[in-house]
Automatic annotation (TrEMBL):
Name of the featured protein: ATP-binding cassette sub-family A member 3-like
Residue ranges of every copy of the ABCA1-4-like C-terminal R2 regulatory domain listed in the record: 51-115
Taxon lineage: Eukaryota, Metazoa, Ecdysozoa, Arthropoda, Hexapoda
Any one of the GO CC terms: membrane
Organism: Spodoptera litura
GO-annotated molecular function: ABC-type transporter activity; lipid transporter activity
């Protein structure tokens, strides 16, 4: 997808044998992207320690994220949690909420990063829609 963005001035997304979207990479992201990706880096000591308190604290963080945002957990590793926030929010609101979480869980959240929805995620959302249509037919 990175090569496509670098080399192409217009991009078409085909799904089910039809052109579903056409435009520039930025235009497609703006028109079809929803939400943000957030990756949390959690402390290694808590993630590898099997103490009940550490696991409970991680579960509390996950619950708080679900409560605060309309989000879904996409991937989880020892020291990383990758969430997708489904709602489009202002960056000021998003970072305010994330900093509040960081303050509430100072021994758990080491760092976090926020990215916009990528062109690949836009493409995959069209593919997922087509797959759902194919399953109902």
């Amino acid at each position: 997808m990175d090569e496509m963005e670098a080399l192409c001035s217009r991009i078409a997304i085909l799904s089910g044998g039809r052109v579903r979207a056409l435009g520039t990479a930025a235009g497609l992201r703006a028109a079809h992207a929803h939400g943000h990706a957030v990756v949390f880096k959690v402390t290694n000591a808590l993630s590898t320690d099997e103490v009940d308190g550490a696991k409970q604290q991680l579960d509390r963080l996950k619950g708080k994220l679900q409560e605060t945002f309309n989000c879904s957990l996409k991937d989880e590793h020892k020291t990383m949690l990758h969430y997708h926030i489904n709602d489009t929010m202002r960056y000021s609101e998003l970072f305010t909420e994330l900093e509040a979480l960081r303050t509430e869980f100072p021994n758990l959240i080491e760092d976090y990063s926020v990215t916009e929805t990528t062109l690949e995620e836009v493409f995959l959302s069209f593919a997922k829609e087509q797959q759902a249509i194919n399953q109902t037919v």
